[in-house]
Amino acid sequence: MKNNEPQPAWMEEPLGNIERIELLNVSLPFVAPFGTSVATWNSKDALLVRLEADGVVAWGECVADPDPYYAGETTGTARHIIKDFLLPELKPGLSLAGLLERCRRVRGNEMAKAALENALLDLIAKRRSLPLHALLGFPSRRIMSGISIGFQDDVPALLAQVQEAVERGYHRVKMKIGRGRDVEWVRAVRERFPALALMADANGDYSLEDAALLARLDEFKLTMIEQPLAYHDIYQHSLLQARLRTPLCLDESIHGCDDAAAAIALKGCRVINIKQGRVGGLLEAVKMAGLCAGHGLPAWSGGMDETGIGRALNIQLQAAPGFTLPGDTSETRRYFREDIVEPPVILDREGYIAMPAGPGIGVAVVEERITNYLLGREKLR
Ligand SMILES: [Mg+2]
Predict the structure, then answer these.
(1) What is the pTM for the complete model shown?
(2) CA torsion angle for 258, 262, 263, 268 (degrees, to 10)?
(3) Cα(59) to centroid(ligand 1), Å
(4) More confident site: 244 or 6
(5) pLDDT tens-place string over residues 268-313
(6) Does the fold of domain 147-366 match that of domain 9-130+368-379?
(7) Is 275 a catalytic residue?
(8) pLDDT at 132 exceeding the cut of 80
């Protein structure tokens, strides 16, 4: 965000020799398909960044999908941007702060930037034998859990999914909504679970002309409605928010702290979903959480159905103050039969998730398993 803020010392130290830089494409099958108003995915196809330096192996995960249905970026565009525009800026003797400054002239492409930045943060933390949350200056804490339930074939199937989440101890349940699958679906869940912390995510499926329909959701006391209007809009959300009692939350529209500041000033939302991958990485996400806290806005960490690498990054991030609401961080088994990291994410008896204690991302990447899911591997340096 601002360049004149004091940087921690490690931001200014040379990144040193990085002997090997690789991009890996993996495809991990989901336990069950994940459907939103925009698309349905059967697997997590992720682009991973692998760095090797002084015997340390560090990882980043790009949250982009192979398709442009959630965001404009894809795993393919991220590869292009990392390979042809970001990595060429990584010159000997440069610090992380120096690299990020050089990369600022690359506009947009926050998911590509986040993948590289997060891998470098993992490297810096591992060299210091520190977990990422400690490198960033935040003490360990257990975090709240939340689950995002994709579209189901019918209402009984949805109720069964919610029931399972409630029994498992999740702190909040998010259900997807879209045109034709909204008021009656939410009503069914609310009638069965009157006290549940429940929210609905439309992934941009409505327009301002649907304001009266969306206002009908007010009676269900949702904690929030996420991104009801267009994926790039802030202003029309402010007009809609003025007509609803239910708080609006922005996701797709927010690509950095400037967007968040605009949304807050316009009263376009009362909550922000901070996806570190969507806003350019952990450093911007931490700043955004601080910005939200400074304005009294609750915020939470959103998920992109990441592999264990991205999931671990999201957990480390939530040590930062400002993440006041349960996010999208769920148990590994909800997504994958086998993940590429150990240990998997599990909930404790009270539904919380422990912060892993290992260095860097805190979990161990099992490279032998990656082989099982590998689509391609490219050595860039
Ligand atoms: Mg969302």
Answers:
(1) 0.96
(2) -160
(3) 25
(4) 244
(5) 999 999 999 999 999 999 999 999 999 999 999 999 999 999 999 9
(6) no
(7) yes
(8) yes
Q: Indicate the DSSP class of residue 5.
A: S
- Find the 274 Cα to ligand 1 centroid distance in Å: 10
Alpha helices in the chain (DSSP H): 9-12, 75-81, 96-103, 110-127, 132-135, 155-168, 183-192, 211-215, 235-241, 257-266, 282-294, 308-317, 367-373
Enter the CATH code of domain 9-130+368-379.
3.30.390.10
Tell me if 156 sits within 8 A of 181, measured CB to CB. Answer: no
The CATH code that applies to domain 147-366 is: 3.20.20.120
Tell how far the Cα of 271 is from the centroid of ligand 1, in angstroms. Answer: 12
Helices (H) and strands (E) in the chain — how many of each?
13, 13
188-220 pLDDT, tens digit per residue, is 999 999 999 999 999 999 999 999 999 999 999
Residue spans of the domains in the chain: they are 9-130+368-379, 147-366
Catalytic residue among 44, 113, 176, 287: 176
pLDDT band at 6 (very low <50, low <70, confident <90, very high): confident
Cα-to-centroid distance, 53 and ligand 1 (Å): 36
User: For this structure, is 176 an active site residue?
Assistant: yes
User: Which of 44, 113, 275, 287 is an active site residue?
Assistant: 275
CA atoms within 13 A on the CB side of 1: 20
Give me the residues paired with residue 44 across strands: 28
Ligand 1 center–CA 137 separation, angstroms: 28
